[in-house]
Amino acid sequence: MSYNISIRLDNRRKKDSGKYPVKLRVYGKATQKEKWYSLDIDMTEKEFDTIWTNTNDTKLRGTNKEARLKLQAIETRANDEAKQMTVFDFGKFETKLFRRSSDKNNVKYHFDTIIQKNIKNNKIGTSESYKYTLNSLANFSETQKKCKIEKLTFDTITADWLNEYQNFMLAKGKSYTTIAIYTRTLRVVFNVAIEENDISNDIYPFGKNKYKIPRTKKVKKALNSKQLKTLFDADATNDNEQLAKDFWFFSYACNGMNFKDIALLKYSDIQNDRFSYYRAKTFDKTAEKTVITIHLTDFTKDIISKYGNKSKSGFVFNILEIQDSSETQYKKIKNFTRLINDHIKRIAKNNDLPNDISTYWARHSFATNSLRKGASMEFISEALNHSDLNVTKNYFAGFEDDAKKDFANSLLDF
Q1: Of 84, 105, 166, 344, which has the maximum CB count within 10 A?
Q2: Do 300 and 390 share a structural domain?
Q3: 353 and 234, same structural domain?
Q4: pTM for the full model?
């Protein structure tokens, strides 16, 4: 064992009552560190010797026997929790020891733990996605199953339960894409609970002959060359529409740069006629960090000059402030993206362009128009910062038929 657990009387300092605190001593052999955990029990040295050193339980009566059984139960549980860890870790041990025993099988407890972990790691968007999923599951559990989300356990969620949840969501007008997002998130929570040895793999409700998460292929929507020219030449009726158009095309001209990355762009990232950054969406998902380099054009330089921070320090654009917390950054980026989407849609409506255009279309438009102009898959894959070429191929496979048709027709356009 890589640890040693025992119940000790901490006689380093006597309390005013004349007693000492009884504590759980845990020693980690790998780190050679020990911690003493308070059990809210005080005893004199004589009382402790009586109930703990006496190996014959039949001689113990009343309060002494009760105290002995309580301490034994604590020590047994501590050992059980420690045994379940492949490598002993004080942090995980403390979490498992001091939670309620029912938390192991509690869905909301595990969701809340993951949410707080993501907030601590500044992954606010990820924490929000877990909150949305939990709220959706709570709505179904409480309205259809008459079970409060605080009481929902993993063993309750069977394949039949999930199929009922899917039908419930469809009846509410939710798409299969939304259902897939929420059930995939729930599957992650199941996997984490199994990995932590809190639940058995036997109750896992996903997979072969069990619940199958809907597989959906989201169509990548993009503007063709003619539509791009129409949007670029369109007149803005107010400052917000001009801002929306400028930033939409800034994203397009910067290889479909995500709006979060635009907001996080700093003047220190700019060197001569280029800037470099790491894509926020994939930064924590890969061990090897890939820097993306964007070459500035006259247009992108003009956008930076027009909207850039005049002090030329910190963030380039006045979307965020250096002192903003992760939560504040998340809200500001979300609000800015909503502003762009609202006003780019107004321009589109006034110019007979697709009314569902959004910031995502800038990235997809960059990809499909680059392909149409003859750029190789390898070039597009690198520009989009995809993990490998297969991702890019699947990305292109998701574009609308018109985009594929344009690309096919362009092959003989020498």
Answers
A1: 344
A2: yes
A3: yes
A4: 0.72
